Amino acid sequence: MEISIIGTGYVGLVTGTCFAEVGHQVTCVDCDAAKIELLRSGGIPIYEPGLKELVEKNAAEGRLRFTTSTREGVDASDIIFIAVPTPPLPDGSVDLSFIEGVARDIASAMTGYKIVVDKSTVPVKTGEKVAETIQRYCKARVEFDVVSNPEFLREGFAVEDFMHPDRVVIGVASQRPVKAMQEVFGPYNAPIIVTDIHSAELIKHAANSFLALKISYINAISVVCEATGANVQEVANGIGMDARIGRRFLDAGLGFGGSCFPKDLSAFIKISEQLGYDFRLLREVQRINTEQMERFLKKMADTLWVLKEKKIGVLGLAFKQNTDDVRSSPAIELCQRLLKEGAVLRVYDPKAMEKAKAVLKEATFVADMNAVPDGCDALVVATEWPEFKKLDLERARNVMTHPILFDGRNLFDGREMERHGWIYKSVGR
Ligand code: UGA
pTM of the full predicted structure? Predict the structure, then answer.
């Protein structure tokens, strides 16, 4: 099928590339000329495992092209996906100006029937507004359908998630676009849920909020574990084996971050408020998340006493493993809080060093993970990169003033660490 994607961020670029990979003819549009130039020359603006190779392959085989012209995208396809950012506003609600702008651009370029699909995460009822906008700005008076198709991929596993989705959600106002949408997603062999647009939009916010709730739940359990000497990982394993609960998203740590959960929670709370419902449960999820960081910082201060001038090595800056994304990263927040207390930081991340430099100007960026502990009073694991487990602990112990490790992601085995002479503090164990 011929498909255009407006917006080549994490979601847009992965979507376009994975559509091309199953044989669709894809035009990716972005207003950022430098980004389009980079993509045309074989570069890629983000780190995402496997993505670069797929972009190269599909571009070379002629199924994937890049342009700055929305008109070109609209002309080239009958199905146009909107995948532009929906950033937060200061009051927690969502800035929908990019969506509105793209809807207008699509409307003014339309000369025949089009299916306009919203893939960006948006508040419920946005589809109606998109339809109204297209109606208003489309001079050619052609027919169109608006569809909601929320995306569930995770950064760091984006290609894998897109190619093997648990489900595909398609929200429609009429049956007309259903067949085409089923053809678009048919090759992925996933269950397809066809529903109304409001429900599709709500599925996205409800899913992200529930996952955030799961994380806050296990973080709250971690507090009780610490107070009783229980082990949160054992508890997570024990409850996770109940199929009704499931083990995934039950890892206690520094709390959730990233460009989705914090933003989407605030947006969902705000939307509910506007609809007359005080979503206290989700406000509690936010509160637990904030407190988790405070508790971890207190644990550090209780052990190190004075943080001022303490040299601390930080492993991990990205908001989670497998990505170079530092937006709303708990690791960055931790660093900023430590710097504010006057600590001296030596930091490292396998992929996020460049992006972190812009927000952590006072830290020393160390190119080699094993050189981070040099002269440090303590080490912190702030992101769950599996390679941190390969840290040369023997060397670290010898070059640090004292071997203290704060494991904010429960990566290491506590008993093993203590056996090797470390003061080891983790979360809920
Ligand atoms: C999240 C959702 O998982 C995706 O399904 C969704 O499509 C995406 O948001 C989005 O709305 O675009 P993402 O933000 O990429 O994906 O990252 P997650 O893997 O969900 O992790 C979010 C945060 O939760 C990270 O800071 C991670 O470290 C933390 N986390 C995750 C935990 O603290 N514990 C866990 O058990 C799992």
Answer: 0.96
